[in-house]
C-alpha cells in the first residue's frame, strides 16, 4: 500500500513539479531574476527576427518596398488631418486603436522610409508580444520549452505567414493572443492583485478592447475566472471594467460610424467558419488538407460533410471537460482549467468575426495560436522530463515540416506596387500638376477601387499641396 501511495504521489508530482532551476522561483535571487528576464528578451529578439525574416525570405525587397494596406493609409491620414482626429476616426465600422497609435511615429519620417519603418516597428511589437507570452507562462510555472515554443508561435506558426505576419494593421491577433494567455494563466501574485502585473493586464485589456470588439470573449473568460474564485474580486472587477470601457467605445463607434461594418449572420457564414476550422488546423502540417482525394485514376474519397462541426463539437466538449476537471481541488488541475479557457477562447475569437462576415484566413490566426499553446502546455509535464536530445529532435523535425511555409506568402511579401516607386510616381505627378489630387496605392494594390468605400480623412486622396511638404 505504501508503494502504491508513493507511485500515485509520484505521478501527481511529475505533472505539477517545476523545473529544478532556481530561475522559476518567484523568490529567486537577484542574479536568477536577471537571467530570467534575459531569456525573455532573447525570446523576443528571436521572434522579431523571425517576423522580419519570413518577409525577407518571401521577397528580398519586402522590408523596404512593401507598405501593407492600412499601414500606409493611417500615417497618410495623420498628414492630412492630425493624430487625434485620425486616432478616433472609425475604420471598417469599428475603433482600431493600436494600429493608429503606431501610425504616428511612421508619419513623422520621410515618405520613402515608411515601408521600412513600419516593418521594423511591427517586428519590435511582435517580439514584445512573444517576450510577454513567455514571461506570463514562466510566472505561471509552465516549463521553459513549452513557454518558449508557445511564445514563438506568434511569428513562426505557418498560418501567420499567409497575411498577418509583420503587419501593424494586423496587430490585433497578437494583442488577443497575449491577453488571452494572461487571463488564462495568471500567476499567484496576479490572481490576488499583488504587484503591478495585474495592473499591466488591465491596461492590456483596455488597449485590446479599443482595438478589437471581439475582446468581449476574453471579458467572458474573466467572468468565468471570477465565478470560480480563481481571481480576487478586485482583479476581476478591474479587468472587466478596463475591457468594458473599450467595448463601450467600440459599441458607440459601431453605432455612429458613417460607413458601418456589414453584418451577414446566417447559416452560410457559420458553415463556412466550421468547414474552415479543420483546414486551418492542418496548416500546422503544411500541405495537408481536407477535401476529395484521388487514389491513382479510378478511386476517390470524400470527407464527411459535417467534419468541421464535429471538430467544433470535439473542441467545445474537451474545453468543458477541462474546465470541470480544473475546478476540482486536486494538485495540478489549475493547469487543466487554463487549457480549457484557451480552447474555449479560440472558438469564440474565431466564430464572431467569421460568422458576421466571411471566413477570412486572418480570423483563424488567434484560434490556432491559442490551440497550439494549449497543446504545448498539455504536453509540458512530458516535455520537462524529456532529454535534451529529444527536445532538439522535436525542434529539428518541426523546422523541417514547417520550412516550406516559412517564407511569407507571395500575396503578403510581394511589393504591389513597390513603395519607393509609388512615392516617385506621386511626386513626379505633383510636380507636373501642383494643384492636382493624387491617390497613392499601397500593397497589395490597396485600397481597391482607388479608395471607394472609405471616408475622409482615412482615405487615399492626397492633395499635391501636402506632397510638397516632402519634396
| Distance between the first and last residues' Cα | 86 Å
Strand order of the largest sheet: 1-2
Radius of gyration: 24 Å
Helix content: 55-70%
Number of strands: 4
* Estimated share of beta-strand residues: under 5%
- The structure class reads mainly alpha
Overall 3D form: globular
Query: Please, how many helices?
Result: 22
Order of secondary-structure elements: HHHHHHHHHHHHHHEEHHHHHHHEEH
Largest sheet: 2 strands, antiparallel
**Poorly predicted tracts of residues:** 1-32
Averaged pLDDT:
88
Could you write a compact summary of the structure shown?
With 471 residues, the chain is an all-alpha fold.
Polypeptide structure, described:
The structure is a single chain. With 471 residues, the protein is mostly helical. The chain is 64% helix and 2% strand. The chain is built from 22 helices and 4 strands. It has a two-stranded antiparallel ribbon with strand order 1-2. Strand 1 and strand 2 form a beta hairpin. Helix 9 runs antiparallel to helix 16. The longest helix is centred in the N-terminal third of the chain and has 29 residues. The chain is globular. The N terminus is likely disordered.
